[in-house]
Amino acid sequence: MKFFIDNLPIIFPYDRIYPEQYAYMCDLKRTLDATGHCVLEMPSGTGKTVSLLSLIVSYQQFYPTRRKLIYCSRTVPEIEKALAELKRLMAYRIKFAETPEQEAKEKGFMGLGLTSRKNLCIHPDVSKEKKGKVVDARCRDLTNSAACEKGRADPGSVELCDWHENLGKGEPGSLIPPGIWTLADVLQHGRENKTCPYFTVRRMMPFVDVIIYSFHYLLDPKVAEQVSKELSKDAIVVFDEAHNIDNVCIESLSIDLTRPMLDSAARSVVKLGEKIDEIKKTDAAKLQDEYARLVEGLQESAAEASDEDAFMANPVLPDDLLKEAVPGNIRKAEHFVAFLKRFVEYLKTRMRVLHVVAETPLSFLQHLKDITYIERRPLRQVLFSFRLFSLTSAFRFCAERLQSMIRTLELNRLDEYSALQKVASFATLVATYEKGFLLILEPFETDNATVPNPIFHFTCLDPSLAIKPVFEHFSSVVITSGTISPLDMYPKMLQFTPVVQETYPMTLTRNAFLPLVITRGSDQVAISSRFEVRNDPAVVRNFGSILIEYSKIVPDGIVAFFPSYLYMESIVAAWNDMGILNEVWKNKLIFVETPDANETSIALENYRRACDNGRGAVLLSVARGKVSEGIDFDHNYGRAVIMFGVPYQYTESRILKARLEYLRDAYRIRESEFLGFDAMRNAAQCVGRVLRGKTDWGLMVFADKRFARADKRAKLPRWINQYITEVASNLSTDMALTLSKLFMRTISQNPNENQTGISLWTLDDIEKAQAKQKEQALLMEQQQEQEDDMDMDYGDGGIDDDTLLGLDV
Amino acid sequence: MPTTLCSAKASYKKQPGTLELTDSLLIWTQEGKKTPAVRVQHPEASSLFCSKEGAAQVRLKLGLVNDEAGHNFTFTSPSAVAYAEREAFKQELTNIISRNRSAAPTPLPKPTPLSTPAKTPAPIPSTSRATSVSSDTRTPILSGIDAATDFRLRKKVLLSNPELLVLHKELVMSGQITESEFWDGREHLLLAEAAAEGQKRGRPGQLVDPRPQTVEGGEVKIVITPQLVHDIFDEFPVVAKAYNDNVPNKLSEAEFWKRYFQSKLFNAHRASIRSSATQHVVKDDPIFDKYLEKDDDELEPRRARNEVSDLYINIGATLEDHVETGNEKDVTMQAGRQRGALPLIRKFNEHSERLLNSALGEVPPAKRRRIDSGNDEDDDAYAQITLDDLRDSEAMSGITLQMQDRERYFEGQLARSASEQAGSEVVDVRAAFAELKHGFRGWETRFSQLRIDKRAGDAALDSMTQNVSARLDIRTRKTDFPPTLFRQLTTCQTAANEFLRQFWTSLYPPPTTTSSGATPSQSAAKAAKMAGYLSKTREKVEALVRAGQLEGVEPERVEVAMKPLLDAVEHALAFYRARSAKTSTLKTA
To answer: Where does the record place the Helicase ATP-binding domain (chain A) (predicted)?
Structure first.
């Protein structure tokens, strides 16, 4: 259908539209017009992605500026779905193009998705590697500019990647025909033409209208520096499924170091030293060259690095990067190696401590300095004879310097140096940020552990740091999700001011989903995943009987979520021993999420087969786990979701504690408020995955007595909360079953009433709504005018021009 | 009475009365009363007991599903008659009970404690003794199914559907319509039955986990059935391998199982997290320990599997989408920390997969789902992302009208509308506005003069009240007929309906049924026959009205009840007369 919002023609690839979608598009357009940021919450399953793409593509195609769209999603399945959605949209636009020119324009529209080499590699050997890191390293060995130069000059001397070589033969701007290419399409295209899919996408990025990739490619400075630095300022940035965006921000600036890593780093340092000695003998000029370049300044050398050479960017955000040359004390290769060696030694010493240490980056540096002063005399001629300032500055350039050195030495198999790279990143981050970070050394994994397994956490506490450059660089940033309540939390945490901030209720002609809160079992024992009672046999049994009973009455698929892996694993074992699972086996197959991602994918595939086949299955998984993000359980894949317990974070975690403290001090967000918010957004996220479209239906069971509390429920998105009745907010298992059966009997009837006009709009309905809107706007204006008139009247008591005109004299 | 299977004089709780068995109920009515005191639905009947032959009283006891005590009836007719009557009841009730049993999910081990097992009366298929329809050979109704299967299916359908059975008895066995006529248009029932039969019962889902029973003396006992052996071999191929290797050369069959259940291997196979603890108790076994595998409790599964190619559910792709960042997850969120649960979880997933594969077959290894670069909107790949309810299904199914000189048609329209447009005057906005304004002048005074007539309001309220009370009246009034009359009414109704159905299908044969393949002359003959039956309906209804009067029911009520039916019959007959008149004129012409 085609309709207008203001004067912008929108092509929407369906014959009908949900009122929510229309409202969502209007608000989105408002944001784009105002070139500001927005937070929008749209009920899950009401076609958020398609509305978003439909509006933005219409916008891009209508205005001559053609602002580029950068669409970020969380997971590869979601990226692939968004690409398919876009592909469908463009096919529709081409089909219904009104003029030949229009059609040509639509056909020229280009959209691509980007993911890692691991997911896009089709080299027969390299793609077999299990670890992404190894794929990256081997790919670089085959494709970096030095190797290519050598290989092309003297074929056969160096192994090169044919797929990559074939790319060089094509025109830079047309490595792939225009159109929308999903990840699977790009892979297929690569196979057919024997070209490298990964570099096809990378090199085409400046030419595309839409690029779809994950949050990390924009938020993680290590990646963003390589991938996203050339994107223009007027691009439209969308963070879809952004309910966990604060966590991604924090993760992208946090680093862990363990003892095995330090050992590996130490070995790498030794190897580096040997390599330098070797080069000194054979090709000393090379090192001299590098030194000279470093004296001149680092920027140049980084700029000429091509995509193929880039392997480890600076972990620091661009604005914080000092525009100065690498300090003198680490310019010389052997000095830098010695510097690294000392630093690794220092970290190892710190790890011998058997008590927990938490300190700020500043105090860490101070301590480091003190130590070096002690050891200064014996090591006078080598290093560490600097004032604090120069030490810090040496640290700041640690990552950059390592990068330069690795390039100079033309090292292969960089994955073996990954630990050292991490140490360098760590050093750089520690020296760059004073606020919003904390160093925590945990000598033991758990409180009861006796064997030390120390971990040095360098943890970012402030999510706004990582996203700040995005807000500053791009004029329109859209943050949207199905569950992003309470809306004001995000602007507060991420430190930005939205121009539009909106949540939409769900219009339904009949209730398509039934949220139920079960607070106690049929035996009236309260159920809860609270730490003190969660392993109580009565609670475990009551949780189990909920699963049994629902497996009896619900057709096809049931998904159950647990608050943590630890709890799920222990409860599955307990249920098995109690014979509960045997009862479930009678009705449905059981699949469980495992630690291995591929194994879980296979389980998921089988789960879907069982649902399609009618056998029915139960999938047990974990809130905020692998399955809860990005996998949909719509239609028969999920007729009921059961949330066992409230998915609170583990409050004993030191990192979490530090973060809570920071939020309280810096943004005045109370601990309990944040924890509750975080738990409910994850619960809502799990539960929201059962719906797609308004004819789909599902049960949403919240099994914990704490869900009955009004303050908890208030944190659920409005579209879920509005359908929780007073009765359904405090149920025992048997009552819930009765309600569920009733609901399923009703929903299985053919809907008699026509949804059109209420929860489904045709073109006429849109026009009607627009007319009404205009009328209201006019009315408002008139009122405004009248008020103005009044003011005028008070002013001089005269008659204004309008009235005079209207008078029939 | 067609629906009453048998009836007899019998006393219940020492009260004399009549016992009747109909097609859906067993009812006992006390003498002189109209409403039955005992009503038993057929599905409720669960067991039947009779007094011995030659006992002083001829008795019958019917046990119910939820009430074993049931009802006791004593046949009060002279003993020889009573005995014959009871046998008739026994025969029928046995059938009903056995039907109930076979329908029940868990059949009881032994049939009713009856001295003479009753045979299910097979509905004798009426061979073509049809008078009107010529050449009605008994061809199977469903193509591709031989006559025997077809017959069996029909029997099954009839047995599981008592109402249909009665109708069948009444119409087919009395010879009014033929067997194939009866089934004509009911093929779907047979197809459904055939499909239900064709369905293979899947394997039960439970894990193979033989739990030892403890008998006295501290010994444990595991009963080995062939089924269990089969399941164990299926679930644990390694046991099958061990069996092949060792039986009967090294171990006897019994020895093999005995040692297996004592071995570490068995404990490893048991689906319990506790089994690892018992391993210390279990002694070493040189034969079985060879087959022992390491526990599959690493984070990565021991058995490497191909990657899932479907990107929509590929979780691993997300993990590899970007370099690892961030701090380690806290203890509770690290998957696989409960080492002991991992083999269990893997066992669940594998077991489920095995069950699924046993029903569906393995997944083809290189199943690659791709979005083809066509414009086909119904492509399977889009199915996972489209919102079906947003599609206008009606608009899709339209067919463009093929019209000659289409352009000219539209041209003409355009020209007309253009001329119309030219003709219409241009509205002077100012003048119109002034006129409007003039019209509004003084509206306030006129508005204040507005009075609504009180009587009109009262009348409206009155009529609404009347409406409500009338409805209430109807709702409260008893409408049910005495059971016998009601039964007659429904019988008449269903029979006439069947005739109507046959009549209309013979006139307008449904396009899909090619198998029946009746020639036009055949169907004409059939229609004539049906019309003949239908014309008798009025008489039947009149007879019912009279019967109703005897029972004390006002004739109007019966008439009202049968009115729709009569209307339908009249309509059909009128149609038939008109049609035959037309054909006869055609013939004469």
So the answer is: 7-291
Q: Which of B200, B223, B242 is the last residue of a domain?
A: B200
Tens-digit pLDDT profile for residues B28-82:
888 877 777 777 777 777 777 777 766 777 788 877 776 667 788 888 877 777 8
Domain membership of residue B433 (yes or no) is no
What is the torsion angle, in degrees rounded to the nearest 10, for the CA atoms of residue B136, residue B141, residue B143 and residue B144?
Answer: -100
- List C-alpha distances in Å: A306 to A140, A145, A202, A224, A290: 11, 8, 11, 15, 18
Q: Confirm whether pTM is higher than 0.90.
A: no
Residues of B within 8 A of A565 (CB-CB) are: 332-337
Sheet (strand B38-41) strand order? B38-41, B25-30, B15-22, B4-12, B71-75, B58-64, B45-50
Asked if residue A777 and residue A642 are part of one domain, the reply reads no
Residue with tokens 């006891």: B61
Residues in chain A with CB shorter than 8 Å from the CB of B437 are 808
- Report helix angle B555-588 to B537-551, nearest 10: 170
Domain span at residue A284 reads 255-462
Domain assignment present for residue A152? The answer is: no
On whether any CB of chain A is under 8 Å from the CB of B383, the answer is: no
Q: Which residue carries 């009348």 as its tokens?
A: B459
What are the tens digits of pLDDT across the range B496-513?
888 888 888 888 776 654
Please give the torsion angle defined by the CA atoms of residues A631, A635, A636 and A642, in that order, rounded to the nearest 10 degrees.
60
A234 in a structural domain? yes
Residues of B in contact with A622 (CB under 8 A): 333, 335
Q: What is the CATH number of the domain that holds A482?
A: 3.40.50.300
- The closest alpha carbon to A433, from A298, A339, A322, belongs to A322
The total of structural domains in chain B comes to: 4
C-alpha A7: how far from chain center: 34
On whether residue B536 sits in a domain, the answer given is: yes
pLDDT in tens, A428-470: 888 888 889 999 999 998 888 888 899 999 999 999 999 998 9
From the list A14, A81, A254, the residue facing B312 with the nearest CB is A81
Helices (DSSP H) in A554-653: which residue ranges? Answer: 565-578, 580-587, 597-613
Which tens digit of pLDDT belongs to each residue from B135-178? 334 444 555 567 778 888 888 888 888 888 888 888 888 777 77
Asked whether residue B192 falls in the same domain as residue B221, the answer is no
Cβ neighbours of A764 (radius 10 Å):
10
- The parent domain of residue B138 ranges over 122-200
Same domain? A447 vs A471: no
